[in-house]
Amino acid sequence: MTRLVIISGAAVGIGRAMAREFALAGDQLALIDQSDAVHDLADELRRAGRNAASYQCDVSDWSGLDQTLADIAQQHGPASVAIANAGIARKVPLAEMDEAAWESVLSVNLNGTAQLLLGAACAMPSGGSLIAISSTSARLGWTDHVHYSASKAGIEGLVRGLAVELGPKGIRANTILPGVIRTAQSLSEEHSLGEVGLSNISSRLPLRRVGQPEDVAKVAQFLASDAAAYITGQSLIVDGGLTIASY
Amino acid sequence: MSTGKLAGRCALITGGSQGIGAAIVEAFAREGARTAFCHVGDSENAAAVISRAQALGAEPLAMDCNVSDPEAVAAFVTAAEQRNGPTDILVNNAGISISHAFEDISLQEFDTILGVHLRGTFIVTQAVYAGMKSRGYGRIVNISSQLALKGGTELAHYCAAKAGVLGMTRALAMEAAPHAFW
């Protein structure tokens, strides 16, 4: 049976890789992104004979996301898998951290994740799989990114809570913590590591390379599959050994 | 359903005659791996695992081998590799459990539990690791337990052994990764 898979932040990076991997596996996709590039991605997938619909929506807008999820449910029926992937990183030194800076990151990364997973879970009458994309920054400090770390750590707590509460309904919830992955976000000189930062870190990783978006997408496919039928409430770190290495 | 995703791979599974180990032998057989497993004095169950694997088109090798005994492990690994080829995948699954109040755990019992779980994982892994490293391919899966992270009444030695397995796994993962273990 074809599954309906909802993915937020689907237009670029890890979200885009997940959209491709799930589409190739034959799933029906409902792709959400704040950028209209999400429509181009859905067009591209449809031209390749895949089943994809696109929705332009900012996940930090609760009522807008509610409406989007209602549209998806009305047009495509209940979802089997929902992946809260939309996230942003903003470099803000502590001295400049004000309410607006804090909220701008928390509202997307934590509130947007909560709203997507809660909304999708309500539309999963026969069970399903919820996946949230956090970050190794949930466990490791990152200078100028305390709001980012807080939002990503919050996701782990959110998911454990959802797993306990939704388990009896046959809904599993798990978190993926990607390490350093080559995406537009990590390549941002302004807000993240940039090209030089990525190449510096790759030689220090046990696996000697930064991750590709597909490395994360394949783990999401596993968590969404029956192979992970007995895994819920867990955090899976996909980081090439970043967090186990001591130098 | 088989997808043959382990076709052509050689796998060693310790403690493969029952429970999780037996399920791993069968799952690997279903995916096309050439498998060998060991057990301790459990020939009847081992024969049953072999016949279930044969029904899946596989022909596992089973041997009696206590993983805490280096000579027995060397004999097991040699026999497995002569028959199946170099080890690509190792699953350290062998384990035992004995419950005793902390004050009643004898040093001998402590050594027995640590011997199978921690020393055994070390011995079997070391027996195949150099070959994996030289060939630039290896997958090592260690079966620990939730009790590596939580307390268990009358299981102090078991919890210590399983936590030890986690520590050794992390250290080996870091050391092995640059040698193309992916």
- The overall average pLDDT of chain A, rounded, is 96
User: How are the strands of the biggest sheet of chain B laid out side by side?
Assistant: 3-2-1-4-5
Largest interface between protein chains, with number of residues from each side: A-B, 9 and 6 residues
Strand content of chain B: 5-15%
Secondary structure category of chain A: alpha/beta
User: What order do the SSEs of chain A take from the amino end to the carboxyl end, as H and E?
Assistant: EHEHEHEHEHEHHE
So what's the overall shape of chain A? globular
Please report the distance between the alpha carbons of the first and last residues of chain B.
25 Å
Give the topology, please.
The complex is a heterodimer of chains A (247) and B (182).
Chain A: E1 4-8, H1 13-24, E2 28-33, H2 37-47, E3 51-56, H3 62-76, E4 81-84, H4 99-122, E5 128-133, H5 146-166, E6 171-178, H6 194-202, H7 213-224, E7 235-238
Helix pairs in contact in A: 1-7, 3-4, 4-5
Chain B: E1 10-14, H1 19-30, E2 34-39, H2 43-55, E3 61-64, H3 70-84, E4 89-92, H4 107-135, E5 139-142, H5 156-176
Parallel strand pairs in B: 1-2, 1-4, 2-3, 4-5
Structure write-up:
Chain A has 247 residues and is an alpha/beta fold. Chain A has a single domain, classed as Rossmann fold, CATH 3.40.50. Chain A is 42% helix and 16% strand. Chain A contains seven helices and seven strands; from the N terminus they run βαβαβαβαβαβααβ. Chain A has helices at residues 13-24, 37-47, 62-76, 99-122, 146-166, 194-202, 213-224; strands at 4-8, 28-33, 51-56, 81-84, 128-133, 171-178, 235-238. Chain A has a seven-stranded parallel β-sheet with strand order 3-2-1-4-5-6-7, sandwiched between helices. In chain A, strand 2, helix 2 and strand 3 (51-56) form a beta-alpha-beta unit. In chain A, helix 1 crosses helix 7 (213-224) and helix 3 (62-76) runs parallel beside helix 4 (99-122). The longest helix of chain A has 24 residues, at 99-122. Chain A starts with a strand and ends in a 9-residue tail after the last strand. The relative contact order of chain A is 0.14. The model of chain A has no long low-confidence stretch (mean pLDDT 96). Chain B is built from five helices and five strands; from the N terminus they run βαβαβαβαβα. A five-stranded parallel β-sheet of chain B has the order 3-2-1-4-5, with helices on both faces. In chain B, helix 1 (19-30) runs parallel beside helix 2 (43-55), helix 3 (70-84) runs parallel beside helix 4 and helix 4 (107-135) runs parallel beside helix 5 (156-176). Chain B is globular and about 50 Å long. The model of chain B has no long low-confidence stretch (mean pLDDT 96). Chains A and B meet through loops of A and helix 5 of B.
